[in-house]
Amino acid sequence: MTDHFLEFTTYPGTVEQDANTNWQERAKDRAVYLWFSDFDIVLYNVTVMAQVAKQAGMVGLLFDWETYGRNIFRYENQADAREQQKTLEQTKQQVRKQGERFVQAINAVYPNVTLMVVPRLYRGLYGSHYELINPFLDGIVAAADPRMRIVDGNEDGYYASTIDDFRRLHDGTRAAMPSDPDLHDKYRQQMAVGLRVWLERNGWSDQPERNNISPARWEVLLEDALRTADSYVWVYHGGSVAPGDWWTGKRMPQAYLDGTRRARDLARRRRTGQH
Amino acid sequence: MQQLEWNPLPGLALVILVIGHGAIHAGTYTRTFQNGFGGYHGTRDATISRNHADYNNGMQDSFITRNSPDQVALVKFVGLDLPADAKIVSAKLTLTVREIGNLPTISAYGLLKDFTEGTKNDQPAADGETTWNAVRHGQQSWGMPGGSDSSQEFTYNGHADRHLPADDQITIKTGASHCTWDVTASLASQVRQGKEYGWALAVVDTKKMDAFVVFFSRQWLRDDAPVSMFPKLTVTFESKLTDLSVAPSTGAKLILYSGRHPSDLRGDPERLEQFPFDGISFRASTAGLQIFQP
To answer: Which residues of chain B are within 8 Å of residue A232 when distances are taken between CB atoms?
Structure first.
């Protein structure tokens, strides 16, 4: 194995000792003081992350911006912006600036890092629930070291069932651009399309015949995704009451492990021109 | 740049740094552009036909050049993303031959206009799609039908459609083979001027009747077609900036999300060996880190 990532996500912070740490309830009613106040903490933490990834020989970081708890990318949640009477436009500008600082902190220790972003980059409308995510992504693209690869993790790969589905998703992802036109060329050069697949999406049984995705179907799905993606296909793991364990083989029939290995090996041969 | 070690004399360290920075030389690099190889998906190809002069034929699983009736094969590679200072040393266009007729001799001409592959399978063209009559149907005609107006200058988007002389010429003697044209001259010009217009391949025989060649196109997907069948462009270039830009993609790899650290399997090396992924991602929290939280 050669390509490891360190994952991180977005939890509104607290230093309260008795804070509720359940991710579904954590900080759901707490005001967000971040973009105009506490962002240096984020920069410190992400610098540590990048150092860990680099020193451990990982290829990069996996950044999941889907918010768990209070949404830090929703304008109406921003207490500091409200207190400082910042408009939505002013807040977007600040978030973009913090996005630039965020990636500069990473690149200061790991310039050629790969940053995989999930659930996705620019393909998709987030509406008023996530007005601040695109400015944040724009900041990342604008200030990213030219050696850095930015991968769209494409969670929507869940819903693909044929190679044509994957291709449409790939092409749509390639076509989706930053909101700032000045970033388009840089983005094209540095981004790559990834895809996500999910074996247990419709539940899970250790008896293959009871599963929605048979071992043979799984193998073809992986082959198609690997044939379409530019960079990484990542297998989401979990979401059912008792998912199979890829590591120990518990509740994971051997046929799925074998099919996964064959799909991976075919992709390896393709990458090296041996197929 | 060379690796610096700590030095108790800052002035000396600075001198070493300056020398190291000045020592960046142009390197020579070779990259292959072929759909499915290294994550590349930018090939475009099409056939234009005198007999269906307003039809687009960009979606077939093969593309063709023929002398009677006249057909011309078009191919280009977009998204090369070569470094800004890339100086082309050589460029080779390789196509896989599916079928030939009458030992055709094929020339590869650098295109001076940007064709659009289109979405049709030998059907009337939609607006903007390339046909025999038009580089962009309904918008812009070729200088001459079939994209045959030529110029000895690499002047793009003027009246001429393709450069003369041709980059290279090959007589194809057998099907089921790979054929390679040296397209260095036209690619060097296209890269210098920021164009990715590609090539027209045309039969040059005038005495043989029905000389033709059918190439496998990028749309060929039957029976899990191997990557090696698709059109390929191999580019060798010199650059000082390559090491300062994003590394070319190496193709898709398979990652397990939220996996455990491989050290968990230290006691079971056989299972680790059999683990069917190229890598894992694991949560920062397992390393005692929380981002976006003090």
So the answer is: 252-255
CA distance A87 to chain B (A): 23
Angstrom distance (rounded) from CA A197 to CA A157: 6
For chain B, the domains span 27-244, 255-287
Residues of A in contact with B281 (CB under 8 A): 4-7, 62, 116, 234
Q: Is B263 on the interface with A (CB under 8 A)?
A: no
pLDDT of A13 reads 59
**pLDDT for position A123:** 83
CB contact under 8 A, A246 and B259: yes
Q: Is the predicted ipTM greater than 0.95, yes or no? A: no
Q: What is the mean pLDDT of residues A102-108?
A: 95
Q: How far is CA A9 from the centre of its chain?
A: 9
pLDDT at A111 over 90: yes
Q: Which of B251, B283, B294 comes nearest A271 by C-beta?
A: B251
User: Please, are residues B105 and B211 in contact by the beta-carbon 8 Å criterion?
Assistant: yes
The domains of chain A are located at 5-153
- The residues, ordered by sequence, that sit 6+ positions from A252 with a Cβ below 8 Å of its Cβ are A206, A244, A245, A246
Helix boundaries (H) for A27-175:
39-55, 79-83, 88-109, 133-143, 163-175
How many Å lie between the alpha carbon of A89 and the closest alpha carbon of chain B?
23
Number of A/B CB contacts below 8 angstroms equals 197
Quote the pTM value: 0.72
pLDDT tens string B154-198: 999 999 999 999 999 999 998 888 999 999 999 999 999 999 999
Out of A65-69, A185-189, A237-241, B218-222, the most confident range is A185-189
CB contact under 8 A, A4 and B280: yes
Q: Is B275 on the interface with A (CB under 8 A)?
A: yes
> What angle in degrees, to the nearest 10, is found between the helix axes of A215-228 and A163-175?
30
